[in-house]
Amino acid sequence: MFDHISIGVKDLERARRFYDAALAPLGYERLSNSDTMIGYGPETVGLWVMQVEQPVVADMRSGLHFCFVAPDEAAVDAFHAAAVASGGTDNGEPGVRPDYGRFYYAAFIIDPDGYRLEAYFHKGEL
C-alpha cells in the first residue's frame, strides 16, 4: 500500500545514530544520506528521516506507530537491545503478543524524538 513514510526530527545526527543501530538487526540499512535527510530500507528507501524545524509532537495516546518486519525472533531481540542502547526507550520487551495472535513476536521502542516503533516476526502459521 505505501511506497514510503517520512518523519521529521530535530536532531538528524542523533536520529542517524539511533536508526543505524536499531534497524541493522532487521536487515535495513541507510541507503540515502545528506545533510538534511536520511533514508532506510532493505533495497530501496521505505523510511525517510528528515531534519525539520517543527517535528510532529509525539503523542503516546494517538495510536500512531511504525512497525518493521523482522526476519526472525533473534532480530526482534537485537532490534530492542540496539534501540535501547542507542537512546531509545523500552515500550515493551520482546515476546509473544497473544492479543495480536499466538505467533506474533514483537518488541516496542520509543525513539529519541518520541516516535513509537515496533519490530515484529510472525513465528508460525497464520
TrEMBL record:
Domain of life of the source: Bacteria
Presence of keyword NADP: no
Keywords of this entry: Lyase
GO molecular-function terms, A-Z: lyase activity
UniProt domain VOC: residue ranges: 1-122
CDD domains, per database record: VOC_like
UniProt cross-references to InterPro entries, sorted A to Z: Glyas_Bleomycin-R_OHBP_Dase, Glyas_Fos-R_dOase_dom, VOC_core
Presence of the UniProt keyword Lyase in the record: yes
Protein name: Catechol 2,3-dioxygenase-like lactoylglutathione lyase family enzyme
Organism, scientific name: Rhizobium laguerreae
